[in-house]
Design brief:
This protein is α/β, with parallel strands linked by helices and 188 residues long. The protein folds into 2 domains: 84 residues; 85 residues, NAD(P)-binding Rossmann-like Domain (Rossmann fold). It has 5 helices and 9 strands. A 5-stranded parallel β-sheet has the order 2-1-3-4-5, with no helix packed on it.
C-alpha cells in the first residue's frame, strides 16, 4: 500500500511491511503514478492538490492532516468512506513556546530596547533600577493575571509555562470548569 507524504516538511516514517512512502508536491495535482495511494498526509497542501486527491485517488482511505484545522480538506470533496484525521495537539508545545516568547518580548519591552540600542541610548525606563510593578505598566509576569482566550490544547500547554513564571492564569472557553488545574470561565 502507498502513503503520500507532502514535500513541505521532511518526514521519514517507519512503516509496516507492505507500505511504501512517496513524497509528492503538496501544491500540485497528484501524479498518475501515485493514484493507487491508500493514505495521504497533508501539510501546506494547496486546494489544487486536495481537489486532485479527492478525485484521483479511488483507493484512498485516510487523509491525515498535520494541522489542527481540517476545513480545507473537508471542502475538497473526499468520499464519505475516507477518514479525515486532524493533527490537533501536534504543535501545542511549539506554538505555546512561540506565544510565550512574544509575550515576554512585549512585557520586557524588547522592541523598544532594541530601538534604543540602535540609537546608542540607555533609557532609564527600559533598564536599570525599576519598581517590580509600576503603575499602569506590565513589566513582569510575576504576579500578573493572565487570561488565555481559548483553552484548548495550546492554552493548556501555555498555562503551566506562565504559572512557572509566577503568573496567575485563567482560561476562557465555550464551557466553564477546571482544565489542567486551571479555572476556565465561559460566557453565561
Amino acid at each position: 500500500m502507498k502513503i503520500l507524504l507532502p514535500d513541505t516538511m521532511p518526514l521519514d516514517p517507519t512503516l509496516p511491511e507492505g507500505w511504501e512512502a512517496v513524497v509528492v508536491d503538496a501544491r500540485a495535482e497528484i501524479p498518475a503514478a501515485h493514484h493507487d495511494a491508500a493514505a495521504l498526509v497533508v501539510w501546506g497542501s494547496s486546494r489544487r492538490h486536495l481537489a486532485s486527491a479527492a478525485v484521483d485517488l479511488p483507493q484512498l482511505r485516510l487523509v491525515q492532516s498535520l494541522a489542527a484545522g481540517v476545513e480545507g480538506i473537508l471542502a475538497a470533496g473526499f468520499a464519505d468512506d475516507v477518514v479525515v484525521a486532524t493533527g490537533a495537539g501536534l504543535h501545542s508545545r511549539t506554538v505555546s513556546e512561540h506565544a510565550l516568547a512574544m509575550l515576554l518580548s512585549l512585557v520586557r519591552r524588547l522592541p523598544e530596547s532594541r530601538e534604543a540600542q540602535e540609537r546608542h541610548e540607555w533609557s532609564d525606563e527600559l533598564g536599570g533600577l525599576q519598581p517590580l510593578h509600576p503603575e499602569g505598566r506590565l513589566t513582569t509576569l510575576l504576579g500578573a493575571r493572565v487570561l488565555i482566550w481559548g483553552f484548548g490544547s495550546i492554552g493548556q500547554t501555555l498555562a503551566p509555562m506562565l504559572q512557572g513564571l509566577g503568573a496567575e492564569v485563567r482560561g476562557a472557553a465555550r464551557s466553564a470548569g477546571t482544565r489542567a488545574g486551571v479555572e476556565v470561565i465561559a460566557e453565561a
